[in-house]
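Researcher: Here's the sequence for the chain we discussed earlier.
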Amino acid sequence: MSWYHVFSPDVERWITLAVFTATFALILYRRFNIAYASLGAAAFLVLTGITSPAAALLRSVNWDVLAIYWGYGMLAIAFRESNIPAWVANRVLARIKKEKYALVFLCALAMVLSSFMANPVVVIMLAPMAIEIATRLRASLFLYLSALAISSNMVTTVTMVADPPAIILAATTGMGFLDFYWFQGKVSLGTLSIIGIAVALLVLLLQFRKLNSQVSIGQEKIRLSFPPLVLFVASVFALSFIPWSNLGAWNHPGLVGLVLGLSSLIAADGRAWGMLKEFDWNTILFLTGVFIVIAVVADIGLLKDFVAWLGHTGLTSPTIYLAIFVWVSVLLSSIIDNVPFTVLMLPVCAGVAQTLGVNPFAFYFGMLVGTGIGGNLTPVGATANVLAYGMLEKRGYKVELRKHLALAIPFSLTAVLIVHILLQLLWLK
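Model: Thanks. This is the structure I predict for it:
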């Protein structure tokens, strides 16, 4: 049975545009729970007959994305409690003698962990160690926590599961875990991101060049639990080597996330309820609403209109469009959430690429790198930044925008620039 329609198609287009604009404005305003904005907008579109409940829940929502996000969220909590990251950090820091190398190592460790764990979880995990080192050396705690936060934000495109936008890209395009490193006969997004981040780390080391105080940290006995590590390796193999595209009705990589999450809870040994309470359910709800709103925007024809408008701007150079997708994404992601932006921009990138007759993955990758790292440009552009600066303010530090920008801009924009250049040379040549 078809769903009811209250308004004419033209009126529905205007209503959808108004709802979409208001939703993004509320997300940008960020004075209340943004999940309310996305879910409220989705409910309004259903109640006004513009989309049906079946279309909204069964066709618009990407359940694979939600399942993978949930599964790796559960694993991240279990992995933190396994003490493996703390053990690695303690063993390495015990062998480092200079402050600048200790700080760069903490930043690098944050990047590695954030490649498959939520950024705020990584900041919470490593902040005590950063605070301890800074206190012992009577160093700037602002430098330590801000460096830790922006480092955790740098790796949103290094793996398929690093951040919701990466999961959304994989689910939308059918990319597998290993496709992030070699795809269509070329080095892919994850490899390009690693190269950009490696260069950015050299920039960070240059910024820390004057930190030559001696570090003295003793080795500690830390009890380890290995099941989360085993689960992580098994999940990577499942996402990488199961031929999902050949499985017909079972072509749902989200099953890996579902099994991973349930296995993490089973292995939690009595901590399952605490893990469920700790998980970021708000993001799941937010994503659900965003998927519905963007799907309606596409179904109603507004995305086609936007792509057509871009095609009539007089710009015909793929190089110019790549630069636009990269650097506009950097700027916008510093003030808006990267999840709805990614869901919106993937079909836009595809439409522009089709108009120009070029590979859309160059635009996908450029947009994703820009929106992932751009959150570092402001103290509130990423959750990890907000969390780290909240820790500082509780300890009486005043967060100065000038100091944040002095650290974040050279570090972050170097990585984006390197990836942009490589995309131009390898994917648009």
